[in-house]
Design brief:
This protein is α/β, with parallel strands linked by helices. Helix content is 37%, strand content 16%. It has 17 helices and 11 strands. The strands form 2 sheets. Strands 1-2-3-5-4-6-7-10-11 form a 9-stranded mixed beta sheet, with helices on both faces. Strands 8-9 form a two-stranded antiparallel ribbon. The protein is globular and about 65 Å long. The mean pLDDT is 97.
């Protein structure tokens, strides 16, 4: 274990690095990785209660704190914050192409499975016991961090005194096909809203699709740009600035009639590569894999079954937070993981992600903000979980998109205040 401390303006930073087993179910096999977490405290409140931030993703590193009025600044009024780089990300031992070099597809798939939720929570428990003297702490889970929250409350409820969730209250009886049957139609709704807001973009985007379907258009990475890759840009529609992000992107699509601009191609390449976080793609369906049964490219199957997502349709439809098998052939940053991704999709056995019985007798206060129009996490699942998990207080709003935590500091403070009003965190 190593600790490095320093000051950034009015904040005291402590960087913690610990060595942990690659597989907490078989620690005796000797394989280890490093896990990194950054503790941030206001200089005048260094002994404040600890709030652990569980980043969205999957495969997301903790945010890097910068001075300014953001949610971290708001939380530091009452808490210390622990920003975890989940295993496989950031300064923790990363998953990159080199990580699986020389492995067979089955070996690589098995290695990647060591970066699921149950292992992340075991890492947190190790940090809590060895670095923080077993203190009972609070958690804030954004998006996938809400999934991790339910895993934490399933297997180590004694570790958590209060839990806050933003846009991530999900089902604890997951099934990938069911998830995508709910979310793909929401992407279609968001796409229709985008074209209602910017009807002039329908013709521009259709022209872009015509060019990439009739011409060998190359991105700066060397990848050939396809229409279905363009469609994946719809992943942005679930965030507050998403419509404008795509509107202004296509605003500069052409530098001459029939010729796509270098700027446009560079931006498309940047938005559809995963050099910094391949786990986001690799684990996207794995986060719904618990118990027997293969995920078997669930999003691809649902997309084909629903229909209406063909790229030659006008206006052009978009897709969202879904990963399809062809992406591992067409995208340079994912190509090294192609065989592993197919092997993962074929796996029939999966460790438990949640303990339903434990969650149904939950005693830890949970305050969860759910966004009624959320494109990524189904609101119906959130309602069901709130009904079945005791001590869950659901705040429903359509004022924010999925990134409400980043857009308004009132979101996190509302949740903290709600738990205080209900009697406060557990001792």
């Amino acid at each position: 274990m190593t600790v490095f401390s320093y000051r950034v303006r009015d904040r005291v930073i402590r960087d913690h690095t610990v060595t942990v087993p690659l597989d907490w179910t078989e620690p005796e096999d000797g394989r280890t990785i490093e896990v990194f977490a950054r503790e941030v405290a206001h200089v005048q409140r260094q002994d404040a209660p600890i709030l652990v931030f569980l980043q969205g993703g999957p495969g997301g590193k903790g945010p890097r704190p910068v001075p300014g009025p953001d949610w971290i600044d708001e939380v530091l009024r009452t808490h210390r914050v622990l920003l975890l780089d989940q295993r496989g990300t950031g300064r923790s031992t990363r998953v990159e192409a080199a990580s699986i070099a020389g492995m067979s597809a089955a070996e690589a798939a098995e290695y990647i499975r060591k970066f699921r939720a149950e292992q992340i929570i075991a890492d947190l428990e190790h940090l809590r016991r060895t670095v923080f003297d077993g203190v009972r702490w609070q958690t804030l889970g954004q998006s996938y961090g809400g999934f991790l929250t339910l895993t934490y409350l399933s297997f180590h409820p004694e570790a958590v005194s209060a839990a806050y969730v933003t846009g991530g209250l999900t089902t604890f009886e997951p099934e990938a096909l069911d998830v995508y049957r709910r979310t793909l139609p929401r992407v279609a709704d968001k796409t229709a809203e985008f074209y209602r807001r910017y009807p002039q973009d329908a013709e521009v985007i259709a022209r872009v699709v015509d060019v990439v379907q009739s011409t060998d258009v190359r991105l700066p990475s060397g990848d050939r740009l396809s229409a279905r890759r363009l469609q994946t840009l719809g992943i942005a529609f679930g965030m507050q600035p998403g419509f404008e992000q795509l509107h202004w992107l296509f605003d500069e699509a052409f530098s001459a009639p029939g010729r796509l601009s270098d700027h446009f191609l560079a931006e498309v390449d940047a938005h559809t590569q995963y050099w910094g976080g391949p786990l986001y793609a690799l684990l996207q369906e794995e986060i719904y894999a618990a118990g027997p049964g293969a995920t078997a490219w669930a999003a691809e199957r649902v997309r084909a079954g629903l229909g209406g997502f063909e790229p030659d349709t006008v206006p052009v439809p978009f897709t969202g937070e879904m990963f399809f098998p062809w992406m591992y052939d067409e995208i340079a940053s994912l190509r090294p993981f192609r065989d592993a991704a197919h092997a993962l999709a074929e796996r029939e056995d999966h460790p438990a992600l949640y303990d339903a019985a434990q969650l149904r007798r939950n005693e830890v206060p949970i305050a969860a903000a759910m966004y009624f129009d959320d494109m990524y996490v189904d609101f119906g699942h959130a309602q069901q979980t709130a009904r079945e998990v005791p001590n869950t207080h659901l705040w429903v709003t359509n004022e924010y998109e999925h990134d409400g935590l980043r857009q308004d500091t009132r979101v996190v403070r509302t949740l903290i205040d709600r738990v205080v009003a209900e009697g406060g965190p557990l001792d």
